[in-house]
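BUG: 3D viewer hangs when loading the predicted structure for this chain

Environment: internal workstation, default settings.
Expected: structure renders.
Actual: progress bar stalls at 90%.

Input used:
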Amino acid sequence: MRTLILLLAWPGAAFAHVPREHVPAATAGWNLEPWLLFLLGLSAIGYGIGLRRLWRSAGGGRGVSAVQAWSFALGWLALAGALVTPLDALGGRLFSAHMVQHELLMVVAAPLLVLGRPLAAWTWALPAAHRRGVGALFQRAGWAGPWAALTAPLGAFALHAIALWAWHIPGAFDAALRHDALHVAQHFSFLVTGLFFWWSVLGHDPRGRYGAGHSTAFLFATMMHTSALGALLSLAPSPWYARYVAEAAALGIDAVEDQQLGGVIMWVPAALAYVVAALAVVGRTLTRARA
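Structure tokens produced before the viewer hung:
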């Protein structure tokens, strides 16, 4: 998980919305920042190498199952789709496209990447002599305490909620659209707090401190507050964000309708993702109880 944040979250967010000049017509709209492509590629190659070594040592499907490997692949594709494809550029012109991008980061890429167990695969991608040392580094007392707080359900829930609501304040959102550094911070906070949140509710709790009840409660609470924000955006009689008024008009789209669509995207599909996750957590718990 630590490696996931360092290699995936920060580089991916850091190079989103960077100005791209002199782009060939064939790739116009695509975010082809070399460092972004390099680090996305590195994360995928590292996962593949580690998975191959792990399965050679422990047997196919052990340590990381085939389903988990596919989860990582789909999460990686969702992350690349949000940050590399023309959706990234379109998000600067239409609020609804921007919401699709954010939901891909928070409710598609983040949970799938967590389910993929990248820490296990990437550890095996390291030379054998370095694996134990890397593990010991992250188990030091100075790191373990803050990590436990950030990945506890309440702490992860609070951080994710604060990031979501704070960045949708009109002044903050408009500032992020005007300044690349703030836009980087916005995407970084959405993805990283999303990773913490999904890590906390999907059962990565080696000490067994939290059960399915905690996970479902925080999934329900997150569904409620994100739905509330989506409803506020959908029902607002006027646009919240000044930047999109002119941008949407230039495309022949009404800014209020664009905002309403973006609010519905946050309200309905995103809420459904939390419901599905809660049902999966409960179903997994019941299956284990029967076993």
